[in-house]
Specification:
The chain has helices spanning about 5-35, 40-45, 65-75, 80-100, 105-115, 230-270, 280-310, 315-340, 350-360, 365-380; strands at about 120-125, 140-145, 145-160, 165-170, 180-185, 195, 210-220, 270, 275. It is an alpha+beta fold. The strands form 3 sheets. The protein has a 4-stranded antiparallel β-sheet, with helices on one face. The structure holds acetoacetyl-coenzyme A.
Length: about 375
């Protein structure tokens, strides 16, 4: 067992850290207040090689391994979950899914643009009546000669309002359940696609773009299929295997940021004539947070390492997401409390970490869903016993 990073992994970690600290950190509070992220950050991430990192060189990537990508998400997550969330959807749910399931022509057409940040990707799975129960979707795909006609709606689509290309899931027959689902790679300028911002203000991730997308008689050629007809649910779930590791790594970053902020505050804040870090009650909080951060890091890196060995890591990815997001929820809650009144104000970033982290426990599969994935993998199907 080797716990050290390679030179190339160190370099990628440092590149992501420099970008996060110098470009994102100074903007994070303003982005949160404004409710949007400047698109120039997307192009900068493209130019730095972050967006295309895991793609092959022929499509504009650098062939990063899964651990390198996790390190990049961890560094972004330490600073801003909206920017990290943007990239996890764009790179892990969309680009890596096109790489795994796309025809050569689809890869050549879309991947270099996505790697450069010229185009933005989104992943349209969730519907008003199909959130956790994704296979129960109502958006339909009806065959019409050499095309499919899509009707339905999707909600909570991260990057949905700014995306140029979307992976859209729709069913050709609801009676077939998950075996009826098809995945399509669709350009958002296609006639019949309408989109608007989700209503209401969200607890966190306020700089993220979350859209409601409607399809009304949207005609797409059969060459837009990603995978075979009926394989769409597997396309969706395999993409989530990538995305959930990204969310887990982002949560690890949030937990680390809460620990860093708490240690710094405990060293400088004085009460009752001494540093608050000299009180055993505060030391206990910080020690528990440090143990959580270490455990989350080991789980996230293990899931990435398994993928790098070419092994399927669905269960380990769900364990990493479950533990890292819940550890980060604990860390953010304790960090706000430890900062007292200052932690309750957006003058200190722990206030934003506390609001943002709840989203990571929900999207790309809630903690309940991660527990289902883990338990089903352990117990197995009765027919296979
Ligand atoms: N990779 C490949 N195939 C997989 C798979 C995986 N990780 N997981 C399941 N499958 C396959 C199964 O093998 C099975 O195939 P067969 O029929 O050939 O045996 C098929 O998919 C159906 O599997 P299940 O019977 O387990 O399906 P289910 O309907 O019971 O659902 C579930 C399982 C785990 C609950 C799934 O529905 C799920 O993950 N739900 C949560 C959805 C989710 O994460 N939504 C988040 C939206 S995306 C988002 O948040 C992005 C954003 O914009 C922020």
């Amino acid at each position: 067992m080797n716990f050290s990073l390679s030179d190339s992994q160190h370099e990628i970690q440092q590149r992501a850290r420099d970008f996060a600290q110098t470009r994102v950190a100074p903007l994070a509070r303003a982005m949160d207040e404004r409710g949007a992220m400047p698109l120039e950050l997307v192009r900068e991430m493209g130019a730095l090689g972050l967006l295309g990192g895991p793609l092959p060189k022929e499509f504009g990537g650098e062939e990063w391994d899964a651990l390198s990508l996790a390190l990049c998400y961890e560094e972004l997550g330490r600073v801003d979950s909206s920017v990290r969330g943007f990239m996890t959807v764009h790179t892990s749910l969309v680009s890596q899914c096109i790489l795994a399931w796309g025809m050569q022509a689809q890869k050549e057409k879309y991947l270099p643009k996505l790697a450069r940040g010229e185009w933005i990707g989104c992943y349209a799975l969730t519907e008003p009546n199909a959130g956790s129960d994704a296979a129960n979707m109502e958006t339909t795909a009806t065959r019409d000669d050499d095309a499919f006609v899509l009707n339905g709606e999707k909600i909570w689509i991260t990057n949905g309002g700014i995306a140029d290309v979307a992976i859209v899931f729709a069913t050709r027959a609801r009676t077939l359940k998950h075996k009826g689902i098809c995945a399509f790679l669709v350009e958002t300028k296609t006639p019949g696609l309408g989109r608007e911002k989700m209503p209401g203000q969200e607890l966190g991730h306020r700089a993220s773009d979350h859209a409601h997308i409607r399809f009304e008689k949207m005609r797409v050629p059969k060459t837009a299929l990603l995978g075979a007809p009926g394989e769409g649910f597997k396309v969706a779930m395999s993409a989530l295997d990538h995305g959930r590791l990204g969310v887990a790594a982002g949560a690890l970053g949030v937990a680390q940021a809460c620990l860093d902020a708490s240690v710094a505050f405990a060293r400088t804040r004085r009460q009752f004539g001494q540093r608050i870090g000299d009180f055993e009650m505060i030391q206990s909080v910080i020690a528990n947070m440090a143990a959580d951060v270490d455990a989350a890091r080991l789980l996230v890196y293990r899931a990435a390492w398994l993928k790098d060995q070419g092994q399927r890591a669905t269960r380990e990815t769900s364990i990493a997401k479950l533990f890292a997001t819940e550890a980060a929820v604990r860390a953010a809650s304790e960090a706000v409390l430890l900062h007292g009144g200052r932690g309750y104000s957006n003058e200190f970033p722990v206030e934003r970490y506390y609001r943002d982290i709840k989203g990571l426990q929900i999207y790309e599969g809630t903690s309940h869903i991660q527990r289902i994935v883990i338990a089903r993998d352990l117990i197995g199907k009765e027919s296979n016993q």
